[in-house]
Amino acid sequence: MGRSVLITGGNRGIGLAIARRLADGGDSVTVTSRSGEPVKGLSVAQCDVRDTASVEAAFKAVESEQGPVEVLVANAGITSDQLIALLKEEAFTDVVDTNLTGAYRVAKRAVRGMMKLRRGKIIFISSIVGLYGWAGQANYAASKAGLVGLARSLARELGPMGITSNVVAPGLVDTDMAAGLSEERKAAILGAVPLGRIADADEVAGVVAFLAGPDAAYVTGAVVPIDGGLGMGH
């Protein structure tokens, strides 16, 4: 039987690619979105990761349908780009609350069942921006960098219970978020990428599937860049 999997923000882009990859592998997968609109072939739970009650309701729905969450992929994220001199405080806190505190909320809820099972996989979707930095994205970079500290702390805390905690850090990926960038911005990024191309969401999904699978049983606290060489170890 497949495992119970929950992917936040899994209704499109990278999250959807991960969901389809794990579902194709036989797992029971539920994705969350703020709207709760249907996604073909997948179970959907309405959830706003900024709200603890909403997170609790989503987990209860998943647990009733497919059992305790064994694999959590914390993928939900937003951007609100602006130069620091013009960046409003609410734009900073909104991004951090969704991308970082939201990941904390779902991880905290997920480990409740994982500790009872004495196993589990937690995977945080960060970004190369969180490691590399990028002008105009101080809020986004801070939130994504914070996921590394969160994941590594959980790796130490939960490892004795058979629970792993890892991070993937994609670079520029062919998603709606990337589509919102100007051609000049894309060209500037790709000019620094040794492979010279944008990534496909399925390439990120493949790495997540590895970290969620048995071959990564001895991998925890890792940060895996999927950036075409842009960060070069950062």
UniProtKB/TrEMBL annotation:
Its EC number is 1.1.1.100. Keywords: Oxidoreductase. Residues 3-192 form the Ketoreductase domain. PROSITE patterns: ADH_SHORT (PS00061). The keyword Lyase does not apply. GO terms for molecular function: 3-oxoacyl-[acyl-carrier-protein] reductase (NADPH) activity. SUPFAM superfamilies: NAD(P)-binding Rossmann-fold domains. InterPro entries: KR_dom (IPR057326), NAD(P)-bd_dom_sf (IPR036291), Sc_DH/Rdtase_CS (IPR020904), SDR_fam (IPR002347). Belongs to the short-chain dehydrogenases/reductases (SDR) family. PANTHER family: 3-OXOACYL-[ACYL-CARRIER-PROTEIN] REDUCTASE (PTHR42760:SF133), SHORT-CHAIN DEHYDROGENASES/REDUCTASES FAMILY MEMBER (PTHR42760). This is 3-oxoacyl-ACP reductase FabG.
